[in-house]
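Dock adenine; give full complex structure.
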Amino acid sequence: MGGRFYQAYNLTSRNDGAQMAIISDDDEFKNICSEKCVEKSLDTKPEAIAYDKSFENNIRPKTFDSYIGQSGLKETLQISIEAAKRRELPLDHLLFYGPPGLGKTTLAGVISTQMDVPIKITSAPALERPRDIIGILMSLKGGEILFIDEIHRLNKVAEEILYPAMEDFFLDMTTGKGQSVKTLRIPVPKFTLIGATTKAGALSGPLRDRFGIIHRLEFYSTEELTQVVKRTASILELEITEKGAYAIARRSRGTPRIANRLVKRVSDYALVKHDGAITEEIANKALDILKIDDSGLDNTDRCLLRLIIEKYDGGPVGIETLAAALGEDVRTIEDVCEPYLMQAGFLQRTPRGRKVSPEALRYLGYKVDTAQKSLFGEE
Ligand code: ADE
């Protein structure tokens, strides 16, 4: 392939917290991702994650007034909440789906504040045994919100327990054995289930059908993320210019969670290397050091695109093959890397596998020759 160039890059943790380790035995690919591909970063240590979670919780907006973005969804929710309050009934069950970091948990918290009801937060992998889901349903108070993250990972038994609870506010339990088996209907308080998933398609039909409100969360615009960055900086009492906030927002992959983490990283740099204030120049320097490029791509994204370009002629190539070559979980590639790469127009999902776009080739400095153009359907 003409015009190929290799850039040495460290693969540490992604700026959204996911860790990517290259464990391929393939020498050619090791050359592509040549340096320190398995270097661990501090961000993956449990205490760092716990710190990150508490940071995230501290800056989460609690009301619609302080929640930036998702304006269409906000309006729909405000109406539903007002209607539920006037009827003195719990809100319909809600399902939020979309890429990670766009504020599904935050929105559930906002709804709990606006409805003035408590919220219990759990995630599907924590509801492994029947007694986990039964216990949590029995512990709910009337009107309370139950938030289940990663709801597409709920097992069949837990799902079956949830159906009558969602529909009629009952648990169907059986006691005894053989001929003396009895079915009991145990009432549970009226509650609202809020489910969150990065994979709406992986939800079973019967479960999806039991949600009254289903909404996709969209990537944020750079302007919205600039507001998020300024709000976070103000909570952390950081000095930041408008252009400094914009520079961080621009490289945040349309994702507030990433924007907030970058605020912290850039503020570290501003504090250590300058007087603490975040200007455009300082933000850009700090982000360059973090190897987050102008489009917000990090090492992992570039590694994925280069792998497809250099080893598979631009694709199509199956996701399993890519995951194996990268030593990465299919789910992380699908849920964390791909949504933004597709949104940015660098990657396409086709029935035969993943393909990079001519824009990705140009962006990464490869020449797009005539043959490739026709391959990509440009001629
Ligand atoms: N922090 C994270 N998400 C946010 C949002 N949508 N609005 C304001 N601050 C946020």
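Observed: Strands lie at 94-97, 119-123, 145-149, 170-175, 182-187, 192-197, 213-216, 347-350, 353-356.
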